[in-house]
Amino acid sequence: MAEHEPTNVAVIVAHPDDEVLGFGGTMALHAERGDTVSVLFLATGLASRLPPNESPTPEAISALRADARAAGAMLGVKLMEFADFPDNQMDSVPLLSVVKVIGEFVERTGAQLIYTHHMGDLNIDHGITARAVLTACRPLPGAQVTKIYAGEVLSSSEYGVPEDRFRPNTYVDITEKLEIKREALARYTSEIRYWPHPRSVKAVAMLARLRGAEVGLDAAEALVLLRDVRSGV
Ligand SMILES: [Zn+2]
């Protein structure tokens, strides 16, 4: 069997916890087979959980980042960066600024494969992130990014308008990684809610079971393939 060529994988999401919700099992599988997994968070997180006009304290932000790093370590993440765009207000930032940050990250990490948001998510930061990733990773001659997937984030992907719902065409068997995904998610104490909130550990595990059952697997993460440029078959 041919040796697996290590791939540089970038997970580019809006908020700390989106990476685990969408791709936690997939990230752990990449790390296990020797791929380099890097994560870029574009927005701060937290602000939408606070009363209007209240900003998250520096302590709350660093606690969230500590959770993100702990979850990342569990999943085998090599590099984690925080871009600090305003939470739930990324529409107040020129798209070009977001594109530039992503472009620089992608170049620096040598990313070949990217996981990001579904453009139809209700959360404004998610949609902007997806658009900015596609813009930063245009398939120009010699482009290093050859594959891009969108993932689903409970409490956002299922809240969009019906015609923009997440419709997966790719499934990753995460049966062996569901437990570590659950544990990584549980590290996000400020973000996780209680059942039947969709962002509860129970709901996330149930979604993994349902996505698995859709394709005859015990547990899966569902994706939408946005682009796949192959040099061979
Ligand atoms: Zn998010």
Q: How would you summarize what this structure contains?
A:
It is built from six helices and seven strands, in the order E-H-E-H-E-H-E-H-E-E-H-H-E.
Which features does this protein show?
6 helices; binds zinc ion; Rossmann fold; alpha/beta; 233 residues; 36% helix
Q: Report Rg.
A: 17 Å
Tally the structural domains: 1
Shape: globular
- Gap from first CA to last CA: 16 Å
Q: How would you sum up the major sheet?
A: 7 strands, mixed
Series of H and E elements: EHEHEHEHEEHHE
Helix coverage percent: 25-40%
pLDDT averaged over residues: 94
Strand segment count = 7
Hey, roughly how much beta strand do the residues contain? 15-25%
The kinds of small molecule bound in this structure are: zinc ion
- The CATH architecture is 3-Layer(aba) Sandwich
Biggest β-sheet: strands ordered side by side in the sheet: 3-2-1-4-5-7-6
What's the total helix number?
A: 6
Briefly note the CATH topology name.
Rossmann fold
Assigned CATH superfamily = LmbE-like
CATH class: Alpha Beta
Helix/strand structural class: alpha/beta
Please mark out the parts with pLDDT under 50 across 5 or more consecutive residues, or reply none.
Answer: none
